[in-house]
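Input.
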Amino acid sequence: MEQLLGSLCDELSKNHRLFIITAYADHSGPPKTGIFRPSRPGLLAFFCYALWKGVLLLRCHREIQVVFGGSSLVTPLVCILARIFRRKALIQAHGLDLLYPNFFYQMLIVRWLRFCDHIIANSRYTAVLAKDKGACENSITIIHPGVYWRRFAMPVAMDALKLERDLQGKRIILFVGRLARRKGVKEFIEKSLDRIIRELPDVRFLIVGDNPKDSLTHRDDVRAEIEQAISACHLQEHVQWLGALSDDDLVKVYKLCDLVVLPILKMKDDVEGFGIVALEAAAAAKPVVATDVGGVPDAVEDGRSGIVVGSGDDEAMSQSIIELLVRDEIKSSLGEYAQRRVRERFCWSSTITRYEKTLFQILEMNDAKCVAAHADD
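Output.
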């Protein structure tokens, strides 16, 4: 979510003036123009500050036409500010922000979706969730996340990278993501990786990511559970923890792997709304093997940019990965198509055009209503 919203703000600011109210950040340095943060951490502090600052900005800047909320969490704030100042209320929905299993959250936050002028969903799955939560179907537009694909397509010195990480002559499976339980890394190790290594002993599994420290919804020590699974399966020499990486190092790891795995679990109260990791892998020309959970099927085109298997079908997951690792022609074909697909359909230049089109449509509808009201008078 943070990645998407940060890139979205960067792209919109190229042609539009933005006023951004965001969370507290504990860092030094001069504040950036147009970005406003509360002086203390915490959700309550943010809500109070956002309401106060939003009122001031809307009073002083009549040119602001849309109040855009970065997730369903801020829907009440967006709707209140938009109604008071007669602006349009727009919300970006991601998936988990619609499902969070708390009665008060659902009653006090999510039910406000029905009062929004428009909702942008990151996948078909998220769009269905929004409709189920009371949003009008006609007010929902699906816009998939974008990716800066050129960064992942840059050539790197593969032999040097593999030598640096002691991976020469190894087949490499990569996982990237925060270690939420829904990501299924522990289950993948226990039920698939063990099978894969019995058939292909030269396989190495690289894990990029760590426990989400500042998450409002994920507090479990999933990393410790994964470490226990690795130990119980005696796979220590086959798994490398890389932790959180810089953007440059992440690109290098994508380039040296053979494929990326997204073994997402189907869970009642948690969901993968899209799967930006699948786009990053595709940009690096790497196929993805993923489960058909949430919005992942929008990110991975089964049989063309990767392979999608049923959630819980560990045999299909294992065999799909083995086939790609031993058949370079299939792996290369999927990777090449995946990169072409990302370049044509998920680059930020085309993604931001869809956002702008939606924004203009919302404003045109408002103008049309005003004209109709004057005609009635």
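The first strand starts at residue 20 and ends at 21.
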